[in-house]
Amino acid sequence: MARKTGSHAEITGPKVRAAAQKLFARMGYAAVSMRRIAEEVGVQAGALYLYTPDKQTLLYDLMKSHMEELLAAWAAAEKGGDPLARLEAFVRFHIRFHLERPDAVFIAYMELRNLEAENFARIEALRKAYEDELEAILADGRAAGLFDVPDTKLATLALIAMLTGVNTWYREGGRLSRERIESIYLDMALGAVGAEAGRARAMAAPCREAE
């Protein structure tokens, strides 16, 4: 059945997505039925199919929207010029963006296993596009002698996992402010990519050349 068009759909459609996101994050995709989503929205179960073909499409649409918003926001972010400034921008951006969207982040990472193969491939392509942004920073830093990274792909995956992990424990009003958390994680990210070793090696190179 085709999706309903018009002002009513413009109101109810987002409500369906919001309800699905809330329930998937709280209960898990597998435990949530279309009837339960309909109850959350306040409509009959059959009415949901005016706005989405099925539950799988809802899950895919939520993940796709999240990744597209992430990529668009990073593209628009201030990044600085050299790799060190760009890495700092990435760390701070990633933490801020993800802490503002805990349900979307949880679904994007924990419900990948429930995507059908074709949908999984599309989301993975978007995830790789984002990972490539960080890997390019690390590769440029290594080429400039600023980072000591033996494998940029592995370092990229490790850093993103570390940064996204903030969502698993952060609570607003806790001991550390968001700004302090960003600074601590930036120091850890710089350590993980061997920024100090890279700097030391870069500074030693002119001395060796002068000998």
Question: Can you offer a commentary on this structure?
Answer:
With 211 residues, the protein is an all-alpha fold. It folds into two domains: 1-53, Arc Repressor Mutant, subunit A (Orthogonal Bundle), CATH 1.10.10; 62-210, Tetracycline Repressor, domain 2 (Orthogonal Bundle), CATH 1.10.357. Helix content is 72%, strand content 0%. It is built from ten helices and no strands. The chain has helices at residues 7-27, 34-41, 55-76, 83-99, 102-110, 117-143, 152-164, 166-169, 178-192, 195-210. Helix 3 runs parallel beside helix 6, helix 4 packs across helix 9 and helix 6 packs across helix 7. It starts with 6 loop residues before the first helix and ends with a helix. Mean pLDDT is 89; it is low at 1-8 and 202-211.
Silhouette: elongated
Largest sheet composition: none
The DSSP helix count reads 10
Please report the distance between the alpha carbons of the first and last residues.
77 Å
| Helicity range | over 70%
Number of DSSP strand runs: 0
CATH hierarchy: architecture of the largest domain:
Orthogonal Bundle
How large, in whole angstroms, is the Cα Rg?
A: 21 Å
Task: Return the CATH topology of the largest domain.
Answer: Tetracycline Repressor, domain 2
Order of helices and strands: HHHHHHHHHH
